Amino acid sequence: MAAENGPTAGEYIIHHLGHLQNKKPESVLDFSVFNIDSLFWATLLGIVGCFFLWKAARKATAGVPGRFQAAVEILVEMVDSQAKGIVHSAESRKFVSPLALTIFVWIFLMNAMDLLPVDLIPAIWHGVAPALGAPDYMRVVPSADLSVTMGLSVAVLMICLYYNVKIKGLGGWIHELFTAPFGSHPLLWPFNFLMQIIEFVAKTVSHGMRLFGNMYAGELIFMLIALMGGAWSLSATGIGLAIGHIIAGSAWAIFHILIITLQAFVFMMLTLVYIGQAHDAH
Predict the structure, then answer these.
(1) Looking at 214, 233, 235, 250, which residue is catalytic?
(2) 210 a catalytic residue
(3) What is the pLDDT of residues 207-243, one digit of tens each?
(4) pTM assigned to the model
């Protein structure tokens, strides 16, 4: 991609970081703009994840399980054991455990899109976009889009607020907002309330930013490795770049498998922790 008549390295990266949007934003606060590519791939991968989980549940047998069923059972047991250790309400776990499983599988699939060749789907879209009259932008890693990760973290916040009210009652939760963590003296109420709001905001922002930051950085590294392969030529330097592209790409892809799994696990665990905290009284 960085050949003589092609784009420069900067242009290549900037183009690959562009989103297919419903319109050009008028400002950074234009909330009527949607990243259509992120919404499409996130929705598609969510459907795929639910389909495979449904298929595993439908084909589950009491006998010796197959490899697919065994893998799903191990995953379900892992998530359920983590939920039991954090969320102590058996009634809440009927919803929270499947939620945590869905989050893990969904985010893992979104992260795994980073393992596809950088130019594969954008190249396909490059041939389709003119016929559709659409902009030539296509990003395929939804978890490298801040709007997606923050949307997920805000959804977790909404669930936490729901459980705060459900477990403690509206009055009990409001009382907690104004009396924890410093005490119930009326002079401390403004400081308690401020600290509670800061805690909710900090947890939500860090929850979404952590996943976004790791996946965005991983995506950039894949682009830089792709540039090495795009700069090859019939020279010692060019051949060295091509070989380096293959070695670096393979090594980073193998290491990235750990990253995409770990980030899905961390997001799931933080979701369980935050929901567990909503069950605990200060």
Answers:
(1) 214
(2) yes
(3) 999 999 999 999 999 999 988 877 767 677 778 888 8
(4) 0.91
